[in-house]
Specification:
Helices cover 23% and strands 29% of the residues. The protein has three helices and seven strands, in the order βββββββααα. The chain has a five-stranded antiparallel sheet. It has a two-stranded antiparallel ribbon with strand order 6-7.
């Protein structure tokens, strides 16, 4: 399942995720599942036809990522693998950063950073004033979407391993 909230120059993409890290850190072995949220650059394209044609929109490179993950074998609600990636290099995320406040109250932590992108390290050069204001306005709707996806993950309807079982590195989501 993929949700996309689009603004002028950025978008927020939210998706379920089932993931097996091929080179896990200590204590991070085994499958993970949950919800991924990314703030991404949006790029409008040129019209492909008449002035009435649809305008292509590219959901481009990630600027910031939060993974509200739990180990598949762990207790539901543990958020034991929940982390964020404060920076990106092109398409690659930075290192996983674990934060007790994020694992303790993930939706509150996430909402605070979306309401004030600078808390997430997204300065005005990445998220302009108009986008920041629009994002702040939509935080309740985005958090509600994340909460609904988390509930569907816990119910077993989303973030399931692909047919045939987990591979070395699997992403069963859009992001």
């Amino acid at each position: 399942m993929l949700y996309l909230f689009g603004f002028e120059q950025i978008g927020v993409a939210v998706s379920d995720l089932y993931f097996v890290d091929p080179d896990p850190g200590a204590g991070q072995e085994g499958a993970e599942r949950g919800v991924r949220l990314e703030v991404r650059r949006l790029e409008p394209g040129e019209l492909k036809g008449t002035i009435y044609s649809a305008r292509p929109i590219t959901v481009d490179r990630p600027l910031w990522r939060v993974d509200l993950l739990e180990s598949v074998d762990g207790p539901p609600g543990s958020f034991d693998r929940t982390h964020h990636h404060p920076g990106t290099s092109g398409w690659e995320p930075g290192e996983r950063v674990f934060d007790e406040a994020l694992s303790g109250e993930p939706l509150k932590w996430l909402g605070e950073r979306l309401a004030d992108p600078e808390l997430a390290g997204l300065g005005p050069d990445l998220v302009g004033p108009a986008d920041a204001a629009s994002l702040r306005e939509r935080v309740p709707e985005i958090i509600d979407t994340v909460a609904r996806l988390l509930a569907e993950v816990r119910e077993g309807r989303l973030a399931q391993p692909p047919a045939g079982g987990p591979a070395t590195s699997v992403r069963a989501s859009w992001l």
